[in-house]
Every structure is written in structure tokens, then in C-alpha cells.
Amino acid sequence: ADYESVVSASVEASKQWRMTPAPVRGEVIRQVGEQLRSKLEPLGKLVSLEMGKILPEGIGEVQEAVDIADYATGLSRMLNGKVIPSERPGHMMLEQWHPLGVIGVITAFNFPVAPYFWNFTIASVCGNACFWKGAPSTPLSHIACTRLVAEVLEANKLPGGLSGLVTGGTDIGEAIVDDRRVNLVSFTGSCEVGKKVGTKVQSRMGKMILELGGNNAITVMEDADIGMLVPAVCFASFGTAGQRCTTTRRLICHSSLIGEVVPRLAKAYGQINIGDPLVKGNLCGPLHTTGAVESYRAAIEEAKSLGGKIEVGGNVLHGRYVEPTIITGLPHDCDLVKRETFAPILYVLPHNSFEEAVSINNEVAQGLSSSIFTKNTEYIFRWVGPEGADSGIANVNIPTNGAEIGGAFGGEKETGGGRESGSDAWKQYCRRATCTVNYSKSLPLAQGIDFS
Length: 452
Fold this sequence. Notes:
The chain has 452 residues and is α/β, with parallel strands linked by helices. 40% of the residues lie in helices and 21% in strands. The chain has a seven-stranded mixed beta sheet with strand order 10-13-14-9-8-16-17, with helices on both faces. A five-stranded parallel beta sheet has the order 5-4-3-6-7, sandwiched between helices. It has a three-stranded antiparallel beta sheet with strand order 1-2-21, with no helix packed on it. Helix 2 packs across helix 6 (139-155), helix 3 (40-51) packs across helix 4 and helix 3 packs antiparallel against helix 6 (139-155). The radius of gyration is 24 Å and the shape is globular.
């Protein structure tokens, strides 16, 4: 009953909202951004408390929501179509973008705030109504955000159905995926579940944005700046306790540098403060669930059985706190390395050439984020070119995580192919209409066809 009332409210709200001028919609989203900005620290603390990421990351996640609201406000005045030359005299061709209607957003535990706003703010200025199902383990963050948005909608005398919330488990997710009234489903989660979501939505000819897993890698060339590399790898590999979809899980290091890079990383790992994510100075909080701890433990044991060497870490400390871990000595193409384990485990893999590094980078099923550390301009442009990284995000001399909101976020292959946030990702929330207007008094046909 709750689900039905939320979706019905969204359908009705979308009819009013699509007729509201886009810049007016943008003003409402600007107010949403201001509302979030005013609660930046308390909402960030709530994210940290509920999800387990350290406080600077919790606040940073809310800041992402603020930033995308600012971006969407400007976008509301730039939802441009095209004027296309017609081959027929007295005719004009136009291309326009119209809202889809209702957007259903399903988000994951690791980012309980930002992904909804990546979707809601952009979809909203495009004229859509949205509703949200978050992870069952982070409901307080979802409720707080929904309340903040509701206050803005009420102040502007707008229907609450423009941003609804449904809490629940798999049954709610399945209802969203199967519901023909939901014109687009935006799903963030595992590759395994994402494949099922994609199949079901496609079977009803709905639209979808899939943001799935990522077995991301940093490639280290022989000329890399090690001073830049070490902090980048640390942030990317054990930030959020290894629970980002953009976490670095593989370090593809030139064999000539492994003897220097691994000890320096091990030393840095040894200095990590692990503990309460709300305590200043702690850099690594807990894993989110006991299941994640078991996955971590199983991966460590499997690595040992395959002949891998634990360079640092490898232990469960207490409760859901684990040691960030570096493992060497495993084949780059073994199942363990090619499988995404959502925990702070980094596999170091040697390479001897640019071509070999690219091959190792691209051999996993996912294609979310990749990065290369090099000063060589040839390597840089080959890396970001068609023969380089096959991921949706291809970085140079920065980590695999920490994407900016101005670019389209998403990946290829089993990562799903969807894009959220900036660039022209807004077009996914729209339907395209090509309009030909005959303003003459004759009726010429295209391709010169004579039908007289």
C-alpha cells in the first residue's frame, strides 16, 4: 500500500512538473542545495554513523549532493535542443528533449546520500518526478534527506510526489523494476543483481541506468612519480574501508619499481589509524556488515592457498574492523584477482610494458575506473585513447576514486554502461523528439519522392 501511494503520487506530480518551465524547476533545486548546505555537518555525521565511513568522507558525500544541485540549477537553463537543416524548402527540423515521467532510484549502502541526488537533481530539472529506495541498512540517511527535500517542496507549494521514498527490501526493489509506470530505473549495486534488474526492465521496454561493480586498477609505469603514487594508492585502496565501487583493487606495477613501491606502501599502511569513523585522525572505519568481514577473511585465506604473500595486514581486528591488506605473488588472471571483493584488499601485479599493463587492466569483467601514473606523454594519450583503458573513467596521475560531479560517472562492460551526474548524462532522463515543421504552402516529400 505504501509503495502504491508513493508511485501514484509521483505519476500525478510529474504531470504538473513537466509543464513547469525548466529554469523555475532549477530554482527549486537551488533551494534543495541550500537546504543540504545548511545541514552539511549533521547530515555528514549521520552518514558516517550509519554507513561507517570516516567523518570527512561522510561530509564530503553530502557536499557532492550540494555540488550536483548547484550544477543542476545551471543546467536548467541549458537543456538545449537543435535546429537541423531540412532538405525541403519551407521546412525546419527541430530536436527537442522532453521528460520521461517517473524515475525510480535504487541506491546502495556505501553512498546513502549522493547517488540519489545525482539522479534526483538532474532528472528533476529535466521535468521528471523521482522516488527512492535506499539500502535497508541506511534508512536514517534516506529519511533525513527526504525530509529536507520535502520542506523545500512544501515551501514552494509543490506536490511531495516529486521526491518520494519507499523503505524496504528486495520486494520493493522488484516492484520498482517490474512497474511499467516507472519510466526509468536507476540502479546502483552489484553486477549480479544488476544483470537481473537490466533483464527485467528491458523485458518491459523500460529505460535504465546501471551503476554496478568495478575491479579497478592503477597502472604504474617505470617513470611514475612515487611520491604522488603512494598517497593516491592509499586513499584509493582503503578509503571507505575499500567499499567504494571505484576503490583500487589492483596495482599493476612496473616490475622495476615493485621493490620500491611495495615497501613504501606497506609502511604507509602500517601508519593507518583504524577505528571509530567519527573520531578525528582515524582513516579507516569498519566494514558495513558481518558478511563483508567474512568475504574479507575468505579472500585472505584463498590468496594464501594460491601462494600469495601478505605484505601487510590480513587480519580481522575486532567486530567489523579489518586491516587494509596488500598481497603480492598472485597471477594477474586468477579468479580471486579478477573477482571484486568489497573490502580493503590490494593485489600487486607486475608488468613489463605499456601493452602488457593495458591488457591486464582490461582483462576483468568490469570497466568502471582505471588510472595510470606516468610522465610520458605517449603513454598518457594512448591510455586515454581507443587502445588504452576500456573503463568509463580513465585517469592520469590521480586515483581511481574521487570523481568530480562535472563529468559523466559510470562504466562499461559488466559495470552496466549507465552514466549519472554531469556532462550530457541528463539526456538519459529525457525522451528525444525530432520535429519537422512545414511553414510553406506546398508539400514536398523527402528524398525527392513524387507521389502525385
